[in-house]
Design goal:
The chain has 348 residues and is α/β, with parallel strands linked by helices. Helix content is 46%, strand content 17%.
């Protein structure tokens, strides 16, 4: 597999030859289309969140096309992925809008927008039935060079820490690895967000550079090794599901024949489906049977302060653009419907 050093060297050669060289798709032989896709996930996590669907795509494509999968920061730092995709340095990306610094007014809602979702099924319903899909398409149609393809749900956002969290006061001063918008919100409670390459997080916890992680649920903590370096898992979460997306370089996407576009969409849906049951089952099973971390909880009446602050945060974000206001209004309407529907949609 290409290393980051090899990749940067070859793209530098392409740049010297002109922008057209960068935009040209990689080709083996005369007809095979080859894409480079980089995910936000490291190798262990990618085995679940994307690799099975990419393996399926490559098998069904039957030699017409191959997608080469690269892991977090392997070719390009995650925060630079959007620009790299625009330039054609990578052909496709799996990530949240927030982490890759997508230049749209909906990017803030990618990843963990606080308390917008309670369960993973909320995400596809919001996109397919409440209009978020059309809003995302509209937003990315205004950005040159990138095609937004699909959004799906991942896991909830919990704290995994070295020290126990049993009250809001315990959050003060905690240095945690988290997502940009989640960190911006959590800083209201004294949390200190820290940005690091994904592969450095485990060592940073071991050395004390980080006090913990607010980047995932317990399934990922066990899968990627973070449960081995943290001692406590907070059962409260600020979001019931991460919103992640697939993107492609627009020119590369438009060049594909329709049957390969359809195949890629089916494989994205396969990935979305797999994560629904992998995370849902894993979160419960590891809370009950996991032996590596002790569970802690902030009392409901105290945690209600965090939820109330989240709704203030929503209103602040709504003021940033008319489109952001539309998204916030959809979140409000959706959560009102869920609350009125009652159990099993919401338990209050």
């Amino acid at each position: 597999m290409t290393t980051r050093r090899d990749f940067l060297r070859t793209t530098a050669v392409g740049a010297a030859a002109g922008a057209g060289a960068l935009a040209a798709p990689a080709v083996h032989g005369q007809s095979k289309i080859v894409w480079r896709l980089q995910t936000y996930a490291g190798p262990a996590l990618a085995q679940h969140v994307i690799k099975p669907s990419i393996d399926m795509f490559n098998k069904i494509a039957n030699g017409e096309m191959e997608i080469q999968l690269y892991y977090a920061d392997q070719l390009v730092p995650t925060g630079e992925l959007f620009r790299a995709m625009q330039r054609g340095l990578v052909d496709a990306v799996q990530s949240d809008d927030d982490s890759i610094a997508a230049p749209t007014d909906v990017s803030v809602f990618g990843g963990y927008f606080p308390f917008a979702t309670r369960y993973s099924l909320d995400v596809p319903v919001l996109f397919e039935q409440y209009g978020l899909k059309e809003i995302w398409e509209e937003a990315y149609d205004e950005v040159e060079g990138v095609k937004w393809l699909s959004a799906g749900a991942w896991d909830p956002c919990h704290f995994a820490t070295k020290k126990p969290i049993r009250s809001l006061k315990d959050l003060e001063g905690l240095r945690v690895f988290t997502f940009p918008t989640a960190g911006r919100f959590l800083s209201r409670f004294g949390v200190v967000p820290v940005t690091l390459p994904w592969e450095d997080v485990e060592v940073a916890v071991q050395t004390g550079e980080l006090d913990g992680i607010a980047w995932s649920g317990i399934t990922e903590d066990y899968t990627v090794g973070w449960a081995d370096v943290t001692d406590y898992f907070l059962t409260n979460n600020i979001s019931g599901a991460w919103i992640g997306s697939y993107f492609a370089n627009e020119e590369r996407w438009n060049e594909l024949p329709e049957h390969l576009k359809a195949l890629f969409r089916v494989c994205m849906d396969s990935s979305h489906y797999y994560r629904q049951h992998w995370y849902w089952g894993g979160e419960a099973k590891l809370r009950v049977h996991g032996k590596k971390m002790q569970l802690t909880t902030i009392p409901d009446e105290e945690w209600a302060q965090v939820e109330a602050e989240a709704h203030k945060f929503w209103d602040e974000i709504a003021q940033t653009s008319p489109r952001a206001a539309r998204v916030v209004q959809i979140f409000k309407e959706y959560n009102e419907v869920m609350a009125k529907a009652g159990r099993p949609y919401r338990y209050d």
